[in-house]
Specification:
Rossmann fold; 7-stranded parallel β-sheet
Length: about 260
């Protein structure tokens, strides 16, 4: 990935932050976007402190719930370096923000979930594919979830949106494989992030169990995963070693979902 131009959304914290640092270690030029400048500045500082350069990190503050954001983001990357060669669609909103049974579900939250989790990756992918096709090389990595395969209780919007991301991944992969581009999705299991902290707190209250009990049941490993356990797969898929992997939904879940 040396000097490849990589755009990572939702890079301020959690899985996106770990992927960004792993890409920096592999030599990529990083365009990182999130809603909070302080989080992006902190990440850029970590990259530079680990031997990277400010010249290899571009921070972009934007809100992907705005349908116009993808165009703004891609244009800023082009102005700095050129066309995006690796796109990681990581930004997302989880069920923890408004968990409810389906019959009580908030319609506005449904729309917001799909705007961020589905429409933004769709628009970004649509923008980066033409130059990838012209160059004969590209990588699109969608950060989905095991909830693309199994449901999240009281998380209808999240479950449905991640199923939609799975469909988008397969549709795009099918269309661009002949152009030297791969499109894949990583499906993490329960991972220790700020977003998931809120979810396990909700499940603790809902089920009448302690937080430690909820965490112990998060995977067959007896714990939640951590973001740094997701990042290596993203690095592999973005590199030349993953050239024959296309249109796949790959679980990183400690064995929670098999098959």
């Amino acid at each position: 990935m040396r000097d490849r131009i990589a755009l990572i959304t939702g890079a301020g914290r959690g899985i996106g932050r770990s992927i960004a640092k792993a890409f920096a270690d592999a030599g990529a030029r990083l365009a990182i976007t999130a809603r909070t400048q302080a989080e992006l500045d902190s990440l850029a500082g970590e990259v530079e402190g680990a031997g990277g350069s400010a010249k290899t990190v571009l921070t972009i503050v934007d809100d992907l719930s705005d349908r116009a954001a993808p165009v703004r983001i891609i244009e800023k990357v082009r102005q700095r370096w050129g066309d995006v060669e690796i796109l990681v669609n990581n930004a997302g909103i989880g069920s923890s923000a408004s968990p409810k049974p389906l019959v009580e579900f908030d319609d506005d939250f449904w729309d917001l979930t799909f705007a961020i989790n589905v429409t933004a990756p769709y628009l970004l992918t649509k923008l980066v594919l033409p130059p990838m096709m012209a160059s004969g090389w590209g990588r699109v990595i969608n950060i989905s979830s095991i909830n693309a395969k199994v449901p999240a209780t009281h998380g209808a919007a999240y479950t449905a949106s991640k199923h939609a991301v799975a469909g988008l991944t397969k549709a795009a992969a099918n269309e661009v494989a002949a152009h030297g581009i791969t499109v894949n999705a990583i499906c993490p299991g329960v991972t220790a992030t700020l977003m998931n902290d809120k979810r396990i707190e909700y499940d603790s209250r809902r089920l009448g169990k302690s937080l430690s009990e909820i965490e112990a049941g998060a995977s067959p490993l007896g714990r939640r995963l951590v973001p740094d356990e997701i990042a290596p797969l993203a690095v592999f898929l973005a590199g030349d070693g993953g050239v024959a992997i296309n249109g796949q939904l790959i679980n990183v879940c400690g064995g929670t979902v098999m098959g």
